[in-house]
Amino acid sequence: MARVSPPSFPTAEEINPDSTMFRHISDEIMLHGQCYDELRVLCKTIGNRISGSPKAAQAVVWGEKEMKAAGADKVWLQAADVPHWVRGKEELKLKYGKNGAYKKVPMLSLGSSEGTGGKILQAEVLMVANFDEFKTLSKEQVKGKIVFFNYRFRQDLINTFEAYGDAVKYRGAGPYVAAEKGAVGIIIRSMSTGEDDFPHTGSTHYYDSVKSIPSVAVGNYTADSLEKNCKKGIVIAQLQSNCTMMKDKVRSYNVIGEITGSVHPDEIILVGGHLDSWDVGEGANDDGAGVVQSMEVIRTFKALGIKPKRTIRAVLFINEENGLRGGFAYADSAKKNNEHHILAVETDAGGFAPRGFGMEMSPAQKQEILVYKNLFLPYGVYDFSQDEGGADISPLRKMDIPEMGLLPDPQRYFDIHHTNNDVFENVNHRELKLGSVVLTQLLYLVSEYGLK
């Protein structure tokens, strides 16, 4: 009996040519991608790069060079005047009980905060669990105290960015709320998922109506100890810091590179991350990862010889962390020049494995994107349910530009976010490259088919 060959079925790639291009993009980046090596140079050669600092200026020069090396048709710098905050020397000591000894604990001043002018501020610590409890206190109870806002990052929320949004108000508004009642300083429990003692910095805010008071964060282990001892009795803090906002703004720049569209050059698809970081760690996940992923999109289009129908533009924004001046400068320029952006995509949630894309756009536009959802499943991307864009592209919302944000796995981001632990070694090369893969795939689809 003759052997009968099994029927030959077409592969998914043969059925859908977009699947074939997805695979080409993935192979190019996973086998030949440059983003991980670029991140190593950014982190280890330049390091952290707060806006207005010499390191931020070095990062702009580096970004322009790398954008050209990626093969962009056009590269330029876009000016933005940014604030310059400096940390300087800082120290926090705590004394538990009347007979205890002062012990130095890990701490970080909150970004953009004012310090003690180098003097030692000594005061009793007043612990509150949340703003509601603080509201019940009189000015007499608060006056002259250092308020400890002991609000815990919610571990029960699976989406850690949701938990961050819940807790971050204590960092942003804590100094103002406490100063209104006469507090001389604040300590906050860090916005952290970590079972560790890494303090997290991050931007805070002051208002002219109240005095600017020193504001610091402590890690979870220190916060646990402080909580325990505040319940037992009196805790005295000694705080000394030199942090301050410099008087004059500093001229800095967004770095922009693009590939001109072959059919609709006036229709722009933007992908970007922010070049600045806080002045601790190396700014690896926040947001060196997004910076190198955005440039990898440009490099991959060029390496594969893809001629996008619409213009692909990568933007390395400056000053996301404490002012968003780069984002506003970009939006102002886009409006002034009457540029037509059909989509803006941001990558600023770490270099972890991609899990989805958030969408800030009309229901009809969401449906256009969801048509492609199954194409992303082999690459681990399944979540298109969240309303999410990004901070740097948020000023474009006034122009009704659809926005998307890359959603990496969120479980580890707030272990290292805004800490000395945000270093190159905490980025995995495969996860970082996979983020570049799905960003490039997304931009390829929109460049081919548009977005109404």
Strand order of the largest sheet: 4-3-10-6-7-8-9-5
CATH class of the largest domain reads: Alpha Beta
Terminal CA distance: 59 Å
The geometry reads as elongated
Ranges where pLDDT stays below 50 over 5 or more residues in a row are none
Keyword list:
Aminopeptidase; seven-stranded mixed sheet; 17 strands; 452 residues; single chain; alpha/beta; Glucose Oxidase, domain 1; 15 helices; eight-stranded mixed sheet; 2 domains
What do you see in this structure?
By secondary structure, this protein is α/β, with parallel strands linked by helices. The protein folds into 2 domains: 13-84 and 248-449, Aminopeptidase (3-Layer(aba) Sandwich), CATH 3.40.630.10; 87-243, Glucose Oxidase, domain 1, CATH 3.50.30. Helix content is 35%, strand content 23%. It is built from 15 helices and 17 strands. The protein has helices spanning 12-15, 17-32, 35-46, 54-70, 131-135, 139-142, 160-167, 169-180, 220-232, 284-303, 325-336, 363-370, 373-376, 413-416, 429-449; strands spanning 74-82, 85-86, 90-96, 103-105, 108-109, 120-128, 146-149, 185-189, 215-218, 235-241, 244-245, 250-259, 264-274, 310-317, 340-346, 354-360, 403-408. Strands 4-3-10-6-7-8-9-5 form an 8-stranded mixed sheet, with helices on both faces. A 7-stranded mixed sheet has the order 1-12-14-13-15-17-16, with helices on both faces. Strands 2-11 form a two-stranded antiparallel sheet. A hairpin with a 6-residue loop joins strand 3 (90-96) and strand 4 (103-105). Helix 2 (17-32) packs antiparallel against helix 15, helix 3 packs across helix 10 and helix 4 runs parallel beside helix 10 (284-303). The chain is elongated, with a radius of gyration of 24 Å. It starts with 11 loop residues before the first helix and ends with a helix.
